[in-house]
Design brief:
GO molecular function: class I DNA-(apurinic or apyrimidinic site) endonuclease activity; damaged DNA binding; oxidized purine nucleobase lesion DNA N-glycosylase activity; zinc ion binding
CATH class of the largest domain: Alpha Beta
Keywords: DNA damage, DNA repair, DNA-binding, Glycosidase, Hydrolase, Lyase, Metal-binding, Multifunctional enzyme, Zinc, Zinc-finger
Structural class: alpha+beta
Family: Belongs to the FPG family.
Pfam families: Fapy_DNA_glyco (PF01149), H2TH (PF06831)
Bound molecules: zinc ion
Radius of gyration: 20 Å
Protein name: Formamidopyrimidine-DNA glycosylase N-terminal domain family
Strand content: 15-25%
Number of strands: 10
DNA sequence: GCTAATGTTGTGCG
DNA sequence: CCGCACAACATTAG
C-alpha cells in the first residue's frame, strides 16, 4: 500500500492529529519493527512533543523536542492510527499521548521500520536517498539515470534514483509513457526518458491530489487492472487488449504488450 | 493448504 | 567501490 502518495497522506493525517502533542509513554509491542534500540526511541519521544514533520519518498520524519527525528517507514502494509478507545489490530508501536489519545504504528506484516536520526539530512545521506520524486527536477532525474544498463522498471523502484516511486506507480509511468518495463535504461532515447519523467511527475501529482485513494484515480489509469479498485477491468485503456502479467525484477508487473513494445535486441 | 503481496536489503558476481 | 540480479524477510488475505 504505502508508496509516496500514501505516505504524504499519513503525513497530513499526523499533522492533523498527533502533531504538537506530548508523548507520555512509548509502548513497544513488537521490537522487530525497530531499527534502533528501544531505549533510543524512548529517549527521543517520551516526555517530548512532536514538533515538525517532513517526508522524503516513502520515509516519514517527525522532529521531536529532543532535537532528534523519528523516522517511520511503512513497508508493504503499515499505516498510522490516532485513536482514543479503538486500537488497531497490529499496533506494533504505540505512542501514548498526554491528551488521552494514542498514535499507533499499525503494521500487520512487520516490514515497516521506526528509526531515530540526528536530522533528516543525516538519515537521507545514510540511506543515500535521492530527492523526493515529487519534487525532482528533470536535470536530476537525467543525472540519476545516466549510464544505467539495467531494466528501467527496477531502476524506477530504486529509492536512490527516484525516492517514493513504488510498484504500481512504476507500472503506471511505463504504461503511460508506452515503455516496456524490461527496456534497458541506456537504450531509451532522450525523448523517451523525458516522457518517463513527465509521467512520473504527473502521476504523483494526480495521486497526491486524490489523497492516494485509488478509486478516485482517472478512469484510464492502468492501476485499474490490478484488481484493487472498484472500476477493475482486464483490458488496456488505450487499445483494449487484455493486459499482460509478468514478473520484472521479482515484482508483480502489469503491462499492455501492444502499447508497450519490447525493446529490439 | 497454497499463493501472492503495494518494500527494502544482503549476498554474490563481475 | 559500484551496478546489477535475485533471494530473503514476516505475516495476512483470498
Ligand atoms: Zn494497449
Amino acid at each position: 500500500m504505502p508508496e509516496l502518495p500514501e505516505v504524504e497522506r499519513f503525513k497530513q493525517y499526523f499533522e492533523g492529529t498527533a502533531l504538537h502533542q506530548k508523548v507520555v509513554q512509548v509502548e513497544i509491542a513488537d521490537a522487530g519493527v525497530l531499527a534502533c534500540t528501544a531505549e533510543t526511541l524512548k529517549e527521543v519521544a517520551e516526555k517530548h512533543t512532536f514538533d515538525k514533520t517532513d517526508r522524503i519518498g516513502k520515509y516519514l520524519f517527525i522532529e521531536t523536542s529532543a532535537d532528534k527525528v523519528l523516522m517511520i517507514h511503512f513497508g508493504m502494509s503499515g499505516s498510522l492510527k490516532y485513536y482514543r478507545d479503538d486500537p488497531p489490530r497490529f499496533g506494533r508501536v504505540v505512542f501514548h499521548l498526554a491528551n488521552g489519545f494514542h498514535l499507533a504504528f499499525d503494521c500487520p506484516r512487520k516490514f515497516g521500520r521506526i528509526d531515530v536520526a540526528d536530522n533528516v539530512k543525516a538519515y537521507q545521506a545514510k540511506k543515500k536517498l535521492s530527492t523526493d520524486a515529487y519534487k525532482m527536477s528533470w536535470e536530476e532525474f537525467e543525472q540519476n539515470t545516466a549510464g544505467r544498463k539495467g531494466l528501467i522498471k527496477p531502476l524506477l523502484l530504486n529509492q536512490q534514483v527516484a525516492a517514493g516511486v513504488g510498484n504500481w506507480i512504476a507500472d503506471e509511468i511505463l504504461f503511460q509513457a508506452r515503455v516496456h518495463p524490461e527496456t534497458r535504461t541506456n537504450k531509451l532515447s532522450k525523448n523517451e526518458l523525458r516522457l518517463v519523467y513527465d509521467k512520473m511527475r504527473d502521476i504523483l501529482q494526480t495521486a497526491v491530489s486524490h489523497e492516494a485513494n485509488y478509486n478516485h484515480y482517472p478512469k484510464d489509469y492502468f492501476i485499474h487492472r490490478r484488481g484493487w479498485t472498484d472500476q477493475n477491468t482486464e483490458n488496456c485503456p488505450n487499445c483494449g487488449t487484455k493486459v499482460h502479467y509478468m514478473k520484472v525484477g521479482g515484482r508483480a508487473t502489469y503491462l499492455c504488450e501492444v502499447c508497450q513494445e519490447p525493446q529490439e535486441v
